[in-house]
Amino acid sequence: MAAYGMDSRKVQRYVTAEGFARNEGNVGAYVSTPFFIIYRSIIPKQEECSNLFVPVCLRAFHIAFDSIQMELIFKVL
Fold it and tell me: How far is Cα of residue 28 from the mean position of the Cα atoms in its chain?
């Protein structure tokens, strides 16, 4: 299980036509309750490998991985 909100870093910083610096790509989301990380996300596909757990390279969409990437969650995995 995990309980950390999504924490996506800035993609780039740019200057507007008015001369102000703006950040692009910063996304965050609060998580009110813990959520499950499914077992099949930490095992490779059957045709790729067998008898192996890979918690630090788990299969997830980039949005989910933004939450799961935290060291405390890797420790739990």
Answer: 11
